[in-house]
Design goal:
Chain lengths: ~200, ~325
């Protein structure tokens, strides 16, 4: 079975791409969603509180992601620390999930940051979803109701598209002009061929 | 002694030329006066002569019978030739329009030729002209003995009024509902041939700028054929209801239940942007909207994207647009 990572910078349209793969019957591990769930885990909460203090917790003592984002997107060391806390736990979950889906020809691991955390070696193939920065910004501004400044603050922690493209096996251009499905069907076909080898 | 009282001064050329020039100017004046008098007498002699002239008039009618409308002039021109004294021809040229002859139908016996075709005899024209230029009627020659035209019976039809407007609104104000016209219909009097094709009567163009409150405008109606139809009334009231608007959006799933094949769209949910009056803002719910892919006359195996259309929406929103307007899709085979 091939382990495929699907990544893309903020606003690149990963979710839509993943839905198409999912429709094709490919099991998808949503790393970012899993990470959010893990923040409810007491061990993770304890580690977060140890580093950040109670400022990133809400009244119900749950991690407040808006407060957390305000810190980590503006502080590289805080970002590294949170990654150190959460990613091992996410990969534990991923390992369990892979066991459940071992019959699949290939699986997708969807995460916003793969290269940035040097996780690329964990996968057999890498797909990067790419779109021009202006389009990505427009999508995020509409989707999350944030301004351009906040978008840039989030985007600066991610690698440049060109660098990600160089290190990826497949690139999906999601600029709203090119058809997505034909690109995905082609990648799907190639991945299935690889599994037969 | 003489020489001692008046010192000698030589006579200069200028001193003697002044009276000469006066004499010369006086000669010119007399010559010009004589010329004018001669020309005047020449004109009097010429005007007393008899001349034969010919005029081509365009025909125009007034005072059409009240129960009828003039819909067509068959004999559009009338040529008149006559011999008259120069004085009378000059008088005629000065006092009368020599291009258009306006015929008052009240003064004529309007006779029916057939169906809607009517005519008048030109005898009265000859008679009046002969009298005016002091000649015998026999000296006036008309190109036609009768002038024909078409009169249609006057009918009435109630026609809806539509407004024409160029309104600029002050931001964020806009028209809340379709403008109301009072009365919504007006009576149009005219020949049935015209009324049959008349769908609407439009107002004159209403021009307003920086509108930020309700408006009641009294405006005249535009009569497209004033010579054929009458409007009653010819003025209406246009009422504009103005409200403060805001932009908003809802997100809703695309309804694919009516698609002939089982499909999945990407994305499955879309955003509908629109403008809504602030007073209606709280009444907006996503469930009031229904967006479906356009699949009529489309082979799903041949296309890669489906265009979306909004088929249900609240009445009080406007300027709506869907983002994205097209979606990709997969046909699900089971």
């Amino acid at each position: 079975m091939i382990k495929v990572a699907l990544t893309g910078n903020i606003g690149s349209g990963k979710s839509t791409v993943v839905r198409i793969f999912s429709t094709l019957g490919v099991p998808v591990f949503y790393a970012d969603k899993e990470a959010k769930l893990l923040y409810k885990d007491q061990r993770i909460k304890k580690a977060v509180r140890k580093y950040f203090g109670s400022v990133v917790f809400d009244r119900k003592q749950e991690v407040d992601f808006k407060k957390m984002a305000a810190i980590v997107f503006n502080d590289a060391s805080a970002m590294r620390e949170i990654n150190k806390i959460i990613h091992p736990a996410v990969f534990d979950r991923y390992a369990d999930w892979m066991e459940e889906n071992k019959k699949a020809a290939y699986t997708l691991h969807e995460a916003a940051i793969v290269f940035e955390n040097h996780l690329e070696d964990h996968f057999d193939a890498l797909i990067n979803v790419t779109a021009p920065k202006q389009i990505r910004m427009e999508r995020v501004v509409k989707r999350d109701g944030i301004n351009a400044e906040k978008f840039h603050a989030r985007a600066k922690n991610q690698w440049l598209e060109e660098e990600k493209n160089k290190k990826s096996d497949f690139i999906i251009i999601n600029d709203g002009k090119q058809f997505l499905i034909p690109q995905i069907l082609e990648i799907h076909r190639k991945l299935l061929e690889r599994t037969k080898i | 002694m003489q020489s001692s009282d008046k010192p000698y001064r030589p006579i200069r050329q200028r001193d003697i030329s002044v009276p000469d020039r006066r004499i010369k100017r006086s000669d010119n004046f007399i010559f010009l006066l004589c010329l004018i008098i001669a020309a005047f007498f020449w004109l009097l002699i010429k005007l007393s002569g008899t001349y034969t002239v010919s005029y081509n008039y365009k025909i125009k009618y007034t005072n059409v019978p009240s129960e009828k409308r003039l819909t067509k002039i068959i004999d559009t021109t009338l040529n008149i030739s006559f011999s008259a004294r120069g004085y009378d021809i000059l008088k005629l040229n000065i006092t009368e329009d020599m291009d258009v002859m306006t015929i008052d139908l009240k003064d004529y016996e309007v006779r029916k030729s057939n169906n809607n075709t009517y005519y008048i005899q030109t005898g009265l024209i000859r008679e009046e002209l002969a009298s005016y230029i002091n000649v015998n009627e026999s000296d006036v020659t008309l190109s036609k003995n009768s002038l024909h035209f078409i009169l249609s019976d006057l009918h009435v039809k109630d026609v809806a009024v539509k407004t024409r407007e160029k309104i600029g609104f002050k931001d964020p104000f806009d028209l809340y509902e379709k403008e109301r016209v009072e009365p919504a219909k007006v009576s149009v009097y005219g020949p049935s041939s015209v009324l049959d094709t008349l769908q609407y009567i439009y107002t004159e163009v209403i021009k307003l700028a920086s509108v930020d409150k309700d408006q009641i405008i009294k405006t005249r109606l535009y009569n497209p054929l004033p010579e054929l139809i009458n409007l009653e009334p010819d003025e209406v009231l246009v009422k504009l209801r103005i409200e403060r608007f805001t932009e908003s959006f809802v997100e809703t799933e695309i309804d694919i239940s009516g698609v002939p094949k089982k499909i999945r769209t990407f994305p499955s949910a879309i955003r509908i942007n629109f403008k809504v009056a602030q007073k209606d803002f709280s009444n907006i719910k996503a469930s009031q909207f229904r967006v479906v892919p356009e699949t009529d006359n489309i082979d799903l195996n041949e296309v890669k994207r489906l265009h979306l259309k909004l088929i249900e929406k609240p009445d009080f929103i406007r300027d709506e647009w869907i983002v994205p307007a097209d979606v990709e899709f997969l046909i699900i085979k089971k």
